[in-house]
Write a structure and sequence with these properties.
302 residues, mainly alpha, 13 helices, 0% strand, disordered N terminus
């Protein structure tokens, strides 16, 4: 296998990686990891935590590259696209180069994920095998949102997959890999669901922005329910996710990310099309900060 990268394709590849999305992929694992680390002191935990975060970032990059490829091949990333143009649209990367990049990322995700499990569980133990299967499912989900014969993202199922993998699997999975337990920690469902809802909101505002260019090409939730209902859906996702991450122990420092989330919601109700693009990084960064500060509130509490 040829592992990309020629100098001429390096900068376009960085553009396609979409660095601004990486904090969202880290929100859940940082939250789950820090909550687990708060009750642990073993020597291997920080190494495991680092591998958890690396694997999450690699999966996000794989998802971004696969989504660009899928949208390019299906014609969604055409001239009428409301969002930013990426490297395939601009001609910076060819289809062959993107396939090489995707294949490389699949290998890196598998290697990083297996290394994460090997430092945490005995080889071929029941937990190792179950989590290996879950990791394979995560790779499949990352590559099939818009890519493949029947991508689930074009059928309006992206919201469900994002909630599961960016919320539940991200928080609960990272906690379990480090702490080796979940049984007494049912309360973790609150931050897991909260981060999941805010992650779905990132996808939803992206789909609201792209409604005009997506029409007739895929069936996102906003296209199914209409623009106004999509704004209310966004409001429910935002408020629900924020409440779950701000209770039961609200601290004043949580006001900073909550303020960013409020600005995002104001933009959703007052802007359309390309004007909504700045609302995405605001929500991504605010979600990451809220997840980080939420977990630190518990970790640092006496």
């Amino acid at each position: 296998m040829s592992f990309v990268v020629h100098s001429s394709s390096f900068l376009p590849l960085i553009k396609s990686i979409r660095l601004r999305t990486l904090p969202l992929s880290l929100a859940g694992v940082v939250c789950g990891g820090l909550l687990a680390m708060g009750g642990l002191g073993n020597d291997g935990s920080w190494w495991t935590f680092a591998l958890v975060m690396l694997t999450a970032c690699l999966l996000q990059i794989l998802s971004n590259l696969s989504n660009e490829m899928g949208d390019h091949l299906s014609g969604v990333d055409g001239e009428g696209r409301e969002g930013p143009n990426y490297s395939m649209t601009d001609g910076g990367l060819t289809v062959k180069q993107m396939w090489k990049s995707i294949n490389t990322m699949v290998v890196l995700c598998a290697v990083s994920g297996l290394a994460m499990l090997l430092v945490s569980f005995p080889l071929l133990s029941s937990y190792f095998l179950i989590l290996t299967f879950l990791g394979a499912a995560a790779i499949w989900a990352a590559t099939h949102y818009t890519l493949g014969k029947d991508p689930y993202g074009y059928k309006g199922l992206g919201d469900l997959f994002v909630f599961i993998f960016f919320g539940l699997v991200s928080v609960l999975g990272s906690y379990f890999v480090i702490a080796h337990t979940l049984v007494p920690e049912a309360w973790l469902l609150c931050p897991a669901a909260g981060i999941g809802l805010l992650s779905v909101a990132v996808l939803n505002v992206n789909n609201i922005r792209d409604m005009a260019s997506d029409e007739g090409l895929r069936k996102t939730i906003p296209l199914r329910i209409g623009a106004r209902a999509a704004q209310w859906y966004q409001t429910v996702l935002i408020v629900g996710g924020t409440v779950l991450l701000c209770t039961p122990d609200f601290r004043w420092w949580l006001c900073f990310p909550v303020g960013g989330i409020a600005v995002h919601l104001w933009m959703v109700w007052t802007r359309k099309g390309k004007q909504l693009d700045p609302a995405l990084p605001i929500l991504v960064i605010s979600t990451f900060l809220l997840a980080l500060l939420y977990s630190l509130t518990f970790v640092l509490s006496p």
